[in-house]
Design goal:
By secondary structure, this protein is α/β, with parallel strands linked by helices. It has one domain: 3-Layer(aba) Sandwich (Rossmann fold). The chain has a 5-stranded parallel beta sheet, sandwiched between helices. Strand 1, helix 1 and strand 2 form a beta-alpha-beta unit. The protein is globular, with a radius of gyration of 15 Å. It starts with 5 loop residues before the first strand and ends in a 13-residue tail after the last helix. Reversibly transfers an adenylyl group from ATP to 4'-phosphopantetheine, yielding dephospho-CoA (dPCoA) and pyrophosphate. It is found in: Cytoplasm. It comes from Methanobacterium subterraneum. It catalyses: (R)-4'-phosphopantetheine + ATP + H(+) = 3'-dephospho-CoA + diphosphate. This is Phosphopantetheine adenylyltransferase.
Length: 153
């Protein structure tokens, strides 16, 4: 499946316990976008998910993982939408099935403001050995590791 090359693509998340699902999401954004805007949930906004690493740690980890890229900007997300509801130069958003409803809401807000809706690129969830999606929550609970291997207790 081939996608257009977009000028500016957005992707957002908590990116806590960085795992294979996060990697796929970000890789897809770099595949389809000339410039990638990565939103990382702030401590206040991301904290709704429970015990997570501080935002500056998660942002620093992303910068380390993306050393081979220069065409990205990482910013703090204080809400589910970030710059996508104000920046007309953003063309597309890469999401997982879990965050796809937020992309639909972003497009609703953009239309209400008279802006062009974003193309929504939805990737599949990456599954762990047990066939369930890899998630930071499962990693925090000690069920699986970052690549989806079941942790034996």
């Amino acid at each position: 499946m081939t996608f257009n090359k977009y000028k500016k693509v957005a992707v957002g998340g908590t990116f806590d316990k960085f795992h294979q699902g996060h990697r796929l999401l970000i890789e897809k954004a770099f595949q389809v976008g000339e410039q990638v805007l990565i939103g990382v949930t702030s401590d206040e906004f991301g904290g709704i998910k429970g015990e997570i690493e501080p935002c500056n740690v998660r942002m620093s980890n992303l910068n380390s993982l993306l050393k081979e890229h220069s065409n990205y900007i990482i910013s703090r997300l204080e809400d589910p939408y970030g710059v996508t509801i104000d920046d007309e130069s953003v063309d597309a958003i890469v999401v997982s099935p879990e965050t796809e409803p937020t992309a639909f809401k972003i497009n609703q807000i953009r239309r209400e403001k008279g802006m062009k809706p974003l193309d929504i690129i939805t990737i599949s969830m990456v599954l762990a050995e047990d066939g369930k999606p890899i998630s930071s929550t499962r990693i925090r609970r000690g069920e699986i590791d970052q690549v989806g291997t079941i942790i034996k207790r």
